[in-house]
Amino acid sequence: MKISSCLYGFVAHGAVFLFTGGCMLLAMLTSLPFVFLLDLLPDVVYTAGAILMLLCSYAYVWFWAVRFAYNQKMRLFEVQLGSFVLLAIMISLFLLDGSSVKDIVRNWEDTGCAFVPPAFTFLCLAYALVLLPVYQSKLWHLILPNGVRLKDLFHVFGDLTIIMALLISATLLFLSI
């Protein structure tokens, strides 16, 4: 195992988080005038747009990061391990104070990271633990060897959408218990 590939995954994930956070702030800043000018639409429309921007920027930057690793002949498992470590550290920060997962997921009242509730941040990180390795593997084995084709991209995003729907369903089931 090369430490450089693991370190690349760790550093790349940090860079992806920073870029995605910047894109999220940019999306919110650009939507602010529309929120005040067009007060006719509910806030959910703007929130959904910001979340969609977040997911698209996260996927786009990871595409370039995985493509770079593929071209540098790094091993996928080592890159995934490095990116997994950063996610695990971030999730462990939520659990350090002794809170249970159920308490964290039900905490939509507090403002955690800036104005985002801790539950939303925790669920995004937890979902990324499942979705990110799948996305990286799909890119590595399906997209990069064959070239970028629209049909394959739809296949990858379709699989990720199904997994995301299952994760959300499992979360809602977990909360109802």
UniProtKB/TrEMBL annotation:
Keywords: Membrane, Transmembrane, Transmembrane helix. The chain crosses the membrane at residues 7-38, 44-64, 76-95, 115-135, 156-175. It comes from the Bacteria. This is Integral inner membrane protein. It comes from Bacillus tequilensis.
